[in-house]
Amino acid sequence: MGEGPRTAAVMDTIRRRIGSRALAPGDRLPSIRGLAASLGVSPSTVVEAYDRLAAEGLVRSRPGSGFYAAGPVPPPGLAEIGPRLDRAVDPFWVSRQSLDADAATPKPGCGWLPAEWMPNAALRRAARGLARADDAVLSYYGGTRGPLALRRLLARGFAGEGLDIGPDRILLTGSGTQAIDLICRFLLRPGDTVLIDDPGYFNFQALLRAHRAEIVGVPYTASGPDPDRFAEVLAAHRPRLYLTNSALHNPTGATLSPAVAHRLLNAAAAHDVTIVEDDIFAEFEPEPSPRLAALDGLARVIRVGSFSKTLSASVRCGYVAAREDWIEALVDLQVATSFGGVSPVAAALVLGALGDGGYRRHLDAVRRRLARARRDAAARLDPLGIRPWLMPRGGFYLWCRLPGGRDAASVARAALRDGVVLAPGDVFSVSRTAGGFMRFNVAQMDDPRVVPVLERALATAGD
Amino acid sequence: MGEGPRTAAVMDTIRRRIGSRALAPGDRLPSIRGLAASLGVSPSTVVEAYDRLAAEGLVRSRPGSGFYAAGPVPPPGLAEIGPRLDRAVDPFWVSRQSLDADAATPKPGCGWLPAEWMPNAALRRAARGLARADDAVLSYYGGTRGPLALRRLLARGFAGEGLDIGPDRILLTGSGTQAIDLICRFLLRPGDTVLIDDPGYFNFQALLRAHRAEIVGVPYTASGPDPDRFAEVLAAHRPRLYLTNSALHNPTGATLSPAVAHRLLNAAAAHDVTIVEDDIFAEFEPEPSPRLAALDGLARVIRVGSFSKTLSASVRCGYVAAREDWIEALVDLQVATSFGGVSPVAAALVLGALGDGGYRRHLDAVRRRLARARRDAAARLDPLGIRPWLMPRGGFYLWCRLPGGRDAASVARAALRDGVVLAPGDVFSVSRTAGGFMRFNVAQMDDPRVVPVLERALATAGD
């Protein structure tokens, strides 16, 4: 008697699972009753299928304990895959290595403060407040722009910087990166050119590649992008967007000067380029510096930011401030691609913590602590011949030149083998001309392993 | 004496803000000291600029109270814009109207349960637990796949459905929609064809349009997509993806039969089509039904879901279960486009609430309550001549035919004028052949305004 179509289907199901490694050799097969229920067949059909597969040698039965996958079976189509233990040093390198490193790994290459530097007391109070919030806050998707109270608080902060806009021109998002991603979806078509700083934040490259954009770089100087090169690149490449950090530029820690800011805006206007200003490090500034968004009044500048650096990276909340018609289009895109916007629970935690009396004092203390940490880190790196390109006014980055033309990628690979995550220069450089630089996070340098590992890695990488 | 370049720049700044309506007529100009600081110029430069603008008539000074924008000024390039009060009845219509409606508006068209139906006590306990969590949970981005404990809990649930995979094949995301969006970024190129159910969840259309995909539909029957048409469409259009809900299909509430499931998988295999199975309503099922993901063992099926319908839409957390190599690629895409993955705070709240002893009992109670609500809603709609296409086994939707060939979009527009948000059939239909249907959320029908408004709207829409 041949097998019926249902038995054949059950057998195919198990064959596929073994073929795709969903069932590895030695794995127990699903229970007969369970599989029967989920496939909508009778238990006796499953028994029949398992018996036939056992006859084929694909599974084994152990009396009293059920059926197991035999094997090994070559995994069709998966042979080329495998865990990417030896990732290329590309724009994902720093993020993947630092996000997935375990808690004990020193991470001078990462882009965040140690947890004990963060305003955890304010966040805990906000979480207790959340436990008493209305059912609606706990349950619902929330409005498409995000809670009005948080948008109002942001608008008041912008007014203090000379940017006067109403809360309707602010859209809350799931993160600063998501905000930029929405803008790219709105303004870019595949093949469009986007201008970024060189060096600049590595994830801008990763994000723009996901949008299939052409990326061109402009050299970053101690007072912002080189304005002559900026104008030349605009004329030569006609980019659709320019994506930058103004205050405490990542990775250099440099600050845009007023004169450069004016020249950038004039050049952008002449070539009809939209500017996305990611202001994620703004709160680390000792005093305000020029902002493209404030100078321009959000005509062609879009301002983006988040709370990940100063409040919490775990509570995901970012924002976009832009022209009203653009915000309306971004709302549609956010609904289409995330359904709701920001989590109302996340917004409630942010609002609670920002409104906490301790938050401003906490920020003042963090700024002072970072000033000391910048000096200490520079003093510890100096004996290794590692020198800051400039001493930033604020923030947690030092962009440093390595001694003797060492290749930062080789140094970073050697340090990773010793369990330390670094941020080699070329991941920040679209032209890959920053191979002699390394970005250090001064708040992540206290572990006693960091300097010895770095010293050994420099020696390994040779001259 | 002519104005200096800095004065001119300040004047340009204010002109642009007025031109873009950042400063509306009558708005107070930024304070002199504030603008001077943010533009990096001296206060006297700002005074000079304001005086010159006053001389031009663009601003007015009021003695003792500062400077104000005069106006009106035509807003360049913004003339065609405006609040979209009269939105087209398109795939965004239901989401925008229901997400942004105020709390008191009855929303039988929306896609969620009333807040008082949700497990708020479990969520409040989870929020109190969060207030005591480690600093790391409150502060850090977290690992790229999301917290292991929650992925393990999901894997145990999948095993109970006959899908045996390890937690490494699960990626947590910011929402179920974000999970599908990541998959589309990974698998689609602009112009690729994607197959969806007709009728089917409206936001799939919005999402696919954001990816510039060509959309084709397959008629949905009481036991799943019509398998003959499915095979024909695969042969004729060669879609890259098929995007569907299996259990408690949205909007019809129908359930995929085992026979149809097998035929779909065979046809998909023959044409090398990847299937995305969005299982967001699974927990509302009275007993498990066939799952494409379980039948296929995640070889060509990708399973997607979230906790938005049963636990909280505010705490944003979704997931993808897929082939290991695909998960690895999706991780990179999620880092590029959101930086971190799911919020660790959100994952902690979900894990706390799912692990809460009350959650299973709560779900049982909700399923019983929904069974009553389905019957009650059908009984209330019956006198209006509104009849369910079928009576679903679970969930909160009734897909109903309107009487006398009424146009659902006209009925929905009339009801919206009376303050009730409905879900007209054509927003669910890529072929726009569901104009005589309406989706009702049976948990949102208790408000006494709903039936009278509906009755009036039916009368207004005429025969």
How would you describe this structure to a colleague?
The structure is a homodimer. In chain A, about 45% of the residues lie in helices and about 15% in strands. Chain A is an alpha/beta fold. Chain A is globular, with a radius of gyration of 27 Å. Chains A and B meet through helix 1, helix 2, helix 4, helix 5 and helix 6 of A and helix 1, helix 2, helix 4, helix 5 and helix 6 of B.
Number of strand elements of chain A = 14
CATH class of the largest domain in chain A: Alpha Beta
Taking the sheet with the most strands of chain A, its summary is: 8 strands, mixed
Strand order in the largest sheet of chain A:
3-10-9-8-7-4-5-6
Tally the structural domains of chain A: 3
- Choose one word for the global shape of chain A: globular
Give the terminus-to-terminus CA distance of chain A. 75 Å
Q: Note the beta-strand portion of chain A.
A: 5-15%
| CATH topology name of the largest domain in chain A | Aspartate Aminotransferase, domain 2
Q: Give the structural class of chain A.
A: alpha/beta
Largest interface (C-beta under 8 Å): A-B, 116 and 116 residues
CATH superfamily heading of the largest domain in chain A? Type I PLP-dependent aspartate aminotransferase-like (Major domain)
Oligomer: homodimer
Global Rg of chain A: 27 Å
* SS element count, helices of chain A: 17
User: Which bin fits the share of residues in helices of chain A?
Assistant: 40-55%
Low-pLDDT residue spans of chain A? 72-85
CATH architecture title of the largest domain in chain A: 3-Layer(aba) Sandwich
Overall mean pLDDT of chain A stands at 90
